[in-house]
Amino acid sequence: MTDGWNARSLPPPAPGQPLPPVGGPPQPGSPWWSDALADPWRDPYAPTAVVVQNPGTPAGPAPEAVPDPDAPRRSYTPILVICLVTALLAGGLGGTLGYLFAVKSGYGNSGGGTALGSTAQDPPAAANRAPDSLAGIAAKVLPSVVTVRVTGAIGTGFVVSADGYVVTNDHVVEGADDTMSVVFSDGSTARAELVGRDPQSDLAVIKVAKSGLTAVALGNSDSIAVGDPVLAFGSPLALRNTVTYGIVSALDRTIEAGDAGTTRYYAAIQTDAAVNQGNSGGPLVNADGQVIGVNSVIRSVGGSETEAGNIGLAFAIPINQAKRVSQDIIDHGKARRTVIGAEVVTGGTSTSGARLRSVEPSGPAAAAGMKSGDVVTKLDGHVLEDGTDLIALVRKYDPGATVSVEYRRGTKTETASVTLVADSN
């Protein structure tokens, strides 16, 4: 082998003559040049020839077939079309999935900056809530709930008529003057005046100087059950438009409350919905958006009223009782109280039940055969622990209602039916 750096131009030899040596005579014994002069592949002047092999001669490996230049060529157009369509489909599918992912996850924007969230295509979320959902009920009731402002105090009330009557607690309006006003859920305000109050039931009615109001729907407090879901509305600690959620924890929980010489009794609806100072007078609403109670009292572990706070023990006046008392106040300026016609012993008794201290001669208890000293143990199936239970449960009923009474006289147990009446005050 050589790289040809010293090659010289020589005249071609005569036909059949060997090539002259290049670069001098061949080296004896060299494997590269021993047969170079007789090798036609190394002779650039060796004539070419086409040799046709005799069919009878054994053949070596068959040469590769040479394509016929005149044969028709196979078309690649269908393959290219299929590839193009596949690429378009893949690109379109990928783009669509990418767009949907970006919209759902809130990524991407057309302004080139960082976008948080996506453009809302639907109405506000609150407008999409079902009417029977908690949000739907809250949206329905809130326009009828007002914050009651009295000198030095804030409470809650709810509209019960389109012409402006509002029910609240008596202790909310206690000490009210001409400066009393209410604030609606939309922030608008209106003056209010006291129509009437009933301290012993802790209910009052005020009139708002505004017409065309939306009144709440009143339910039936006798049809509720322990475990029913409820919403409490109000202005706890002056936080207007507050809604809390819970259940009915107990029924006919007898309450004795009050101060300054006024004792209030009622058989309350107990709930674990959060209720705090400022919720007083607000509505307790069932899953149908109907008012079934008036939030009034809480139990607390605080040492004073100013330290009192929610611990999941709140009590509401049943709406059946509140409706009757409020209607009396609107119609007559004062409320009737339902009585059994007997005076009972309250507090500090060792006897289980309500002991009758005295019985009015012409009252319902006397008419049913009861006497002084009898101990009432059940009223309409409710077990009585003391005299407070009897007073609170009797006031739950309308005047004229007939209830069954079980009482003990000495060692004997008696039963009677008593028709309750309204007091004469």
Automatic annotation (TrEMBL):
Chain positions covered by the region annotation Disordered: 1-70
Annotated Pfam families: PDZ_2 (PF13180), Trypsin_2 (PF13365)
Compositionally biased spans, kind Pro residues: 10-29
Catalytic activity, EC: 3.4.21.-
GO molecular-function terms, A-Z: serine-type endopeptidase activity
InterPro entries with a match to the protein in the record: PDZ, PDZ_sf, Peptidase_S1_PA, Peptidase_S1C
Classification via PROSITE patterns: PDZ (PS50106)
Keyword line: Hydrolase, Membrane, Protease, Transmembrane, Transmembrane helix
Alphabetized SMART domains for the sequence: PDZ (SM00228)
Coiled-coil intervals, chain numbering: none
Gene3D superfamilies the UniProt entry points to: 2.30.42.10, 2.40.10.120
Bilayer-spanning residue ranges: 79-101
Keyword rRNA-binding: no
Location of the PDZ domain: 329-386
GO biological process terms held by the UniProt record: proteolysis
Entry annotated with the keyword Cell wall biogenesis/degradation: no
Protein family: Belongs to the peptidase S1C family.
Protein's UniProt name: Putative serine protease PepD
Organism: Paractinoplanes abujensis
